[in-house]
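Lab meeting prep.
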Amino acid sequence: MVVEDRDWQETWQETWQETWQEAWRDHIWLPYTQMKHAAPPLPVVATQGSRITLADGRELIDGIASWWTACHGYNHPHIRDAVTRQLESMPHVMFGGLIHEPAVRLATRLAALMPGDLERVFFSDSGSVAVEVAMKMAVQYWLNKGVRGRTKMLAFRGAYHGDTFATMAVCDPAEGMHKHFSGVLPQHRIADLPRSEEELPVLDALLARHADELAGIIVEPLVQGAGGMIFHDPEALKRLRALADKYDLILIFDEIFTGFGRTGTMFACEQAGVVPDIICLSKALTGGTMALAATMARRKIFDAFWSDEPTHALMHGPTYMANALACAAANASLDLFAREPRLDQVAAIEASLREGLEPCRGAHNVTDVRVRGAIGVVEFAKIGDLAALKHRFVERGVFIRPFGNIIYLTPALTIGSDDLRQLTDAIVDVVRNGVV
């Protein structure tokens, strides 16, 4: 009987390897996709460095590092070995009433990397949840201090902070992914981000009218990512810090996209010399290996929860909070930032992106070309057929996922110069040949 079972398993495995690439149609629900018209997703069987290997043997150069997470490239041996060692001793244990060394070490290291007194770390398992926790902290901060009514957030047009109901409510209300829910979401104050000193009085006046209903301000520092890769200068963050201080508001920096070297410094807030009250981290936190997020708060925020009142505790606790495997991966990722020249590599990528994408400037339909750190963007007046454009890139041996009216690159920080050149050449090709 055991032999028969083994034979059946082997037969099933052989059959499955031949059919799984089509079986997705029966059960998989793809993200950000109208399933009725969904093009077949690319079946991946392996990754290495900046390369994705498809089931048919083709290799693609990944231009977006799996939504900006794989900052050290895929399958880095140091991260892989750290996760393997952790798996052998303890993959996970609940964080309620128990702690473990990888989480304590990671929290200690993150606090040491942060500016100012961002010293308290609350772990979760996704960027959206990290932002929700930050919003919850900000609102409860005021409740714990006996202040009622300060329950709304100030957010900005062009923003993206996540896909849960709370985070959708602080995204750009006209943004295509979330406007369908406009009548359902909580209402917050949405304003234009003051990109110059001349624009500041408008936001100042809004805050003067509504500060008593606001718990805080939330912003993506330097780059509004999934809202369109929209850049702003460090001075804008200084203005927000000054306004937050003026109106006694909690300033939240969502560094889920910008953190861990992507903009040229370890964290984007460093370029402004500004310390937020709360900072959110995820994506590249584990080097693209495991799901993990962190919400970090300054001492004054934590102090508002330090009380004899049980109701003043932060009542939040994801089941896989501070997962030991994910913490091991994150600690290994921080090792790599400490001992390998990641920020120098970002500077080299920035120079290559500027040179490689410059031929697109001034081309038909192109409205802007911009680069910051390891982020390169070509913006168009309009992109007609996104599916056809993606297919053209695959034909050229690259995986680039344009959206809205932009084509962008956010490669691994370890990408080789030849691979990066192939990515920029592919974009220049579709621009020159009028494919967009």
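Slide two material, second protein:
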Amino acid sequence: MIAQPKFKRSRMSARHREWIAGYLFLLPDVLGLFVFLGLPMLLSLVLGLYDVDGFGSYRFVGLANYRKMMADPLFWQSARVTVLYAVMLVPLLYVCGLGLALLVQKTNRFNGVIRSMFFAPHMVSLVVVALVWQFLVVDKIGVLSRLAASLGLGSISFLGDPDLALFAVVVVSLWFLMGYYMLIFLGGLQDIPAMYYEAATMDGAGPVARFWYITLPLLKPTSFFVVMISMVAAVAGSQAFDIIWVMTGGGPANSTSVLIVYIYQQAFGFGAFGYAAAMSSILVISLMALTGIMFLLTRGGRFSYE
């Protein structure tokens, strides 16, 4: 009788099973991102090639919307305002968020109350926040306007002066968002082992040296995450749109008209949905390119402070 060859059943290694389980856990999120983000982005790219009036009329115009964009002075002005808004807001959010986290990182009842107070604005609707601040800084009757007049500074129009309106919007955005980034930095600070600080203190390192050589280097991934999401929020986030639209509507003289506001005006104010889709595509592509450059320059948040 001829013996039959025995085939050994191949078994997956534990590492391969972990990979498969990990990908299966990620699958629902990936599908959700594709359906609710990826697919609309692809449709927006296609829509940018059409002239759409919002009443079911689609006329293929090729790259006409993009050529119109390049020759549109208001588009370039909105792009400049967007860059100014992000350049002012992102560093302030980083510094204030980290500073607040350092102040309240010790766990006690008093710091718990302070954390709640700083995070409380983030629990309120952005529309309500913008309306309250609009009442505070409105010309002549606003609390801050009256305070400036009582200090002998004259009648300051915080929202009516093109030179001040963007700064006022940045201040409101900072007040609203810094508590959120404070919590993110708190999570990063609490992940730093206390033994590093104890060893540095025994070696004679002062607070500044401990912060520069221990805290900042070990906060690299958290810092990278904060910079990335704050940049996206400043350029294309709902926070920027809601606050600016309620407080100034993009004015005065388009001084606060960031790209997301200008896109909204073109789509729902003038019915130029194809043109708005083309601008949205450029905005998304610019953000993706900027994100990729930051990943390359910082090696995914593992950059060096030296």
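Talking points for slide two:
The chain has a mean pLDDT of 84.
The chain is about 70% helix and 0% strand.
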